[in-house]
Amino acid sequence: TNYCGLFSEQDIGEETIAEGWVETKRDMGGVIFIDLVDREGPLQVVFNPEYTNIEAFRLAERARNQSVLRVKGVTHRRDDETVNPKIKTGTVELRVTDAELLSDCAALPFDPSMADNVREDLRLQYRFLDLRRPRLRDNLRFRHEVTRAIRHFLDEADFVDVETPILTKSTPEGARDFLVPSRLHNGEFYALPQSPQLYKQLSMVAGFDRYMQIARCFRDEDLRADRQPEFTQVDLEMSFVEMEDVLSLIEGYMQRAFKEVLDVDIQLPLPRLTYKDAMERYGSDKPDTRYGMEIYDISDLVKDSGFGVFEGPVQGGGSVRAITAKGGSAAVSKKGIKKLTEEAKGIGARGLAWVRVDEEVTSSFDKFVTKELIDSVVERGGAE
Predict the structure, then answer these.
(1) Could you tell me the end-to-end alpha-carbon distance of the chain, in angstroms, rounded to an integer?
(2) Angle, helix 243-257 to helix 134-156, in steps of 10 degrees
(3) Which of 19, 221, 361, 372 yields a CA-CA distance of 20 to 30 A from 273?
(4) ω before 112 within 30° of 0 (cis)?
(5) How many CB atoms lie within 10 A of CB 249?
(6) Is the pLDDT score of 292 beyond 90?
């Protein structure tokens, strides 16, 4: 038996068995072509009265989409005009001699191959069909491969995989606990772990100096883009190490995962930002550095400008900072600037100072400062 999606030209001439579900069927004037699919992908199988027994051919005639077949036959190379370079098995086909219907499919609520146009609630109701879509199958395989690469790397680095309890005592964490009532202890509850914090610390004290776990965590909190009520994290703890040891280890398993899963080479060490640099340049402790529009300091330029709005904060120990929005002059109208000013006031600012660079340079504060100062601000920000 071979996975449908793993057939190759090495199998040409071999008699073999394949099992999968019918994704598409084409009757081409007495010859039936079926795309038989399993978790590894599709394989074209051919039913032809010249070499297929009559019972198998009749089975192919009545087989419906998503029915599960076992087929037996000999692998051949496709004719040049029928080679499909878009799939891994595009150069081969299985010419069926015998077949067996393992599971006949009833009428379906939707065709998985057309599921992108199906309501989400219906797809979730019939999740087993939804998961037959290549994109979702690939997502699950991708996750498996990433987890495997990380686990292997940490195993080689002498980490011990420790499985910790899910039903546990409530401990102070960053969110509310999910609670599970105890049948044996009336009126008392277990908490689901927000992280394995206590257990990994116990492991450290007990002498397991390198602990790891692909850990399930549960937090009763509002949904965010990167957080669900339950999620999985790479959880690890190390004894007798410095900061550099931890950073280097995590860089190493990221490098391994990218190479093994995506065949992408990552150069180490990765770029690093201190918390201070991240907040000053991006205003966030987890910035997307691809975004650009970094914050930059112009305090030294405006501290003696004679403009109190700028001088006051600097003299009080604060700073004056700016961002440059490339192409913003064309994208943001005067009305848009007014709206941005109101948004700035809405989050605690007193206003919004702006400079617009077009054929000429204009600003909201040019009446209060010199042209040379505005030019120096434009130059500092790389505005064009």
Answers:
(1) 65
(2) 140
(3) 221
(4) no
(5) 18
(6) no
